[in-house]
């Protein structure tokens, strides 16, 4: 009759202990199953969207299902991830259920806002203090989305600053510039050569020469065009306009005289002073 060796007995005992420990974990209730995500990131029409729903507690694997309501057209729920390209604006309310390996189940309501992408923003970088010498002004764009071209019109006080001829320079090699200038104004068309721009980028710089020491105020009106043919518009301003000395003098001269206080004694009526003995 064959008897198991001691080494085999020890190995079998270790396996039984390991399985017993795993069984204890499987049988323990642990943390309750719930969806940790409470709010969703906004989505934009025509742009790829992805958001992972976070589950806490329960026992993996998890199973996700759309319980009620409707997702935005173009967006689907797969393995706990909302993804796709929304094709319509609006607010979409829906419920998602999740169940785990213990057949526990929970449901949570969500709301996803789909809007038109906001236009890009032109960033004007001007000195915050008085300018006494030629200054280089960098112009950049922020938040571009599939941007193919833009046209911007920049303006400043021509009595205080003049454009340095030939100073408009592209900041990148993949940009084409077309410029037109007159007193106090610079219009620049920018075309992105090759791939469209998504994100932030510096566009061009130009130099202004002060006619007299002054602070600089710059305004811009910009039209954007995407590769898909969509248009957007934005306005921007930066810096401060100096207060003219004439305006300060006019404000000081135009200040109203203070009204006399009726409670004060009037010494101009010719009345006698009791201390000087009267009038006679």
TrEMBL record:
<dbReference type="Pfam" id="PF05345">
    <property type="entry name" value="He_PIG"/>
</dbReference>
<protein>
    <submittedName>
        <fullName>Ig family protein</fullName>
    </submittedName>
</protein>
<feature type="compositionally biased region" description="Acidic residues">
    <location>
        <begin position="242"/>
        <end position="280"/>
    </location>
</feature>
<dbReference type="InterPro" id="IPR015919">
    <property type="entry name" value="Cadherin-like_sf"/>
</dbReference>
<dbReference type="GO" id="GO:0005509">
    <property type="term" value="F:calcium ion binding"/>
</dbReference>
<feature type="compositionally biased region" description="Basic and acidic residues">
    <location>
        <begin position="220"/>
        <end position="231"/>
    </location>
</feature>
<dbReference type="GO" id="GO:0016020">
    <property type="term" value="C:membrane"/>
</dbReference>
<dbReference type="InterPro" id="IPR013783">
    <property type="entry name" value="Ig-like_fold"/>
</dbReference>
<feature type="region of interest" description="Disordered">
    <location>
        <begin position="219"/>
        <end position="280"/>
    </location>
</feature>
